[in-house]
Amino acid sequence: MSVKDRFKRVWNAFVSPQNDPHTSDVTYGTTAYYGGRSPSRMTLRVGNERTIITSILTKMGVDASSIPVRHVKVDDQGRYLSDMQSAFNDCLTIEPNLDQAPRAFRQDIAMTLFEKGVAAVVAVDMAQNPNDSGFSDIYSLRVGEVTEWYPQRVKVNVYNERLGRREEIILDKSYVAIIENPLYSIMNEQNSTLQRLIRKLGFLDVIDEQSSSGKLDIIIQLPYVIKSEARKQQAEARREDIEFQLRGSKYGIAYTDGTEKITQLNRPAENNLLKQVEYLTNMLYSQLGLTDEIMNGSADEEAMNNYFGRTIEPIIDAIVEGMQRAFLGINGIKSRKERVMAFRDPFRFVPVKDLAELADKLTRNEIVTSNEFRGFIGIAPSNDPKADKLINSNMPQAEPSEMLERVRQNGS
């Protein structure tokens, strides 16, 4: 398809007949958004922004986004053969949309999963309307939030880059990658560990604000009985006088009569709220496979592999399977042998001192070539032809003619 024909046939989700058309001749859109924050960025709940929950979710989102996702070709056994030369693969590896790079796009999916429980990846620009002939190629992707559910469709709140604002559109479930958080019961259920911790942290913030509000919280015991209206007015005047002294004093000092007694009330309240917060935090860490060492970056290889295996990989698998179902379909998976695959770097947490031994084992057993391993550690490939062959360098290598001659001699 030529470039001219491609733009003639391109289909955009925001101008679908199921939604109100938005057309404008304004060059830069209808409105301008002022500020340092992009309007396409997802907003966290206020309760999360003010607590340690944000650091936990951000850590998991960054780790999930570190695993690349690609559109690939596989063989009959489902093994990886090569990357697909498609616009969909360009979206996954180069530019998903006008505002995001691939890693930011993957992190957007993960953060939406953690915050909302369900994320919807919408193919905004496609070669043609999927309702007419199914999906063809995809030119841009956006992450949205499902706001309403219907039997065959969903209403998705997604950013419209043409108008510079978020809008709600209705799309068929078959053409939207609906991704559920595999840790939903831990993170998003109403009485889940994470939600209980958020509520407890909110209560703790309220107590902290009350204790640091600047109030003295004192009771003044006067040397007379306050029952008559005159005595009440006299006591009120005495209270206002002490307030005036404290407010006007440089060091906050006031004087009282020797017969008056002052009792301070703003002592720290004794409760078990902090212990409950610590208990829920430890429980959440254990359920998410997190440790203090993982959060502060000092975890060893075994702990990181356990964390990625228990927590991060289920999230990536959910993202991959959701895209595969919606954007490739049964026809793409079975007939065209296409997949969406995630590729985690197996040497990411291997200490440098162990790389040499690992390289020797992999090349000696003819699992990877020398140039393939050099690519894993970021070294340019060697020009030696032997570096692209699966050979054991510790064994003498004979030429094919010499090997044939030896076989003949052994046979005779």
Outline the secondary-structure elements.
Layout: H1 3-9, E1 11-12, H2 46-49, H3 53-65, E2 69-74, E3 80-83, H4 87-93, H5 102-116, E4 118-126, H6 130-133, E5 138-149, E6 153-160, E7 165-172, E8 176-180, H7 184-187, H8 193-211, E9 218-221, H9 229-248, E10 261-264, H10 273-288, H11 292-296, H12 301-335, E11 338-342, H13 352-364, H14 370-376, H15 400-411
Antiparallel strand pairs: 1-4, 2-3, 2-11, 4-5, 4-8, 5-6, 6-7, 9-10
In short:
This protein has helices at residues 3-9, 46-49, 53-65, 87-93, 102-116, 130-133, 184-187, 193-211, 229-248, 273-288, 292-296, 301-335, 352-364, 370-376, 400-411, and strands spanning 11-12, 69-74, 80-83, 118-126, 138-149, 153-160, 165-172, 176-180, 218-221, 261-264, 338-342.
Low-pLDDT segments: 22-29
The total of helices stands at 15
Helix share, percent: 40-55%
Average pLDDT over all residues = 80
Q: In one word, what is the shape?
A: elongated
Topology as a string of helices (H) and strands (E)? HEHHEEHHEHEEEEHHEHEHHHEHHH
3D structure, described in words:
44% of the residues lie in helices and 16% in strands. The protein is α+β, with helices and mostly antiparallel strands. Among the domains are: 3-187, no CATH class; 350-412, no CATH class. The strands form three sheets. Strands 1, 4, 5, 6, 7 and 8 form a six-stranded antiparallel beta sheet that branches. β6 and β7 (165-172) form a beta hairpin.
Features:
single chain; 412 residues; alpha+beta; 6-stranded antiparallel beta sheet; 3-stranded antiparallel beta sheet; 15 helices; 11 strands
